[in-house]
Amino acid sequence: MRQASLSSREVPSSRKPWRTFPVNGVAMCGDCVEKEYPNRGNTCLENGSFLLNFTGCAVCSKRDFMLITNKSLKEEDGEEIVTYDPDLCKNCHHVVARHEYTFSIMDEFQEYTMLCLLCGKAEDTISVLPDDPRQMALLF
């Protein structure tokens, strides 16, 4: 027999005290996510939120969309760094996570990285040439 499921916008209120992770002065909440820093392979998101990993807000017990706030873009030594607090609860403005995305060009490759408690960690490298030299080496 299946148990009645929770509404898509409510989470159980019987949660433990919050697990927080301070990153650059921002406390991220481990109780709002299913898995902390999930491995996303080479899926690097410049913006957005990985809602499949969001269990619900530990403060207001709602499961809703996230707000993107405090977005900043800076360049350091040819590397573009985008940071924001995307994972802010839409209802109570509780900070779930801080998202960092980097982009750089090294020699003949574009390099991407992502690090976020909710969205996960990932990195990818793509050739800027029409034919990827790494793929050509595999053919011979």
TrEMBL record:
It comes from the Eukaryota. InterPro entries: Churchill_sf (IPR038543), Transcrpt_activator_Churchill (IPR009508). Pfam families: Churchill (PF06573). GO terms for biological process: fibroblast growth factor receptor signaling pathway; positive regulation of DNA-templated transcription. GO terms for molecular function: zinc ion binding. Keywords: Activator, Developmental protein, Metal-binding, Transcription, Transcription regulation, Zinc. Belongs to the Churchill family. PANTHER family: PROTEIN CHURCHILL. This is Protein Churchill.
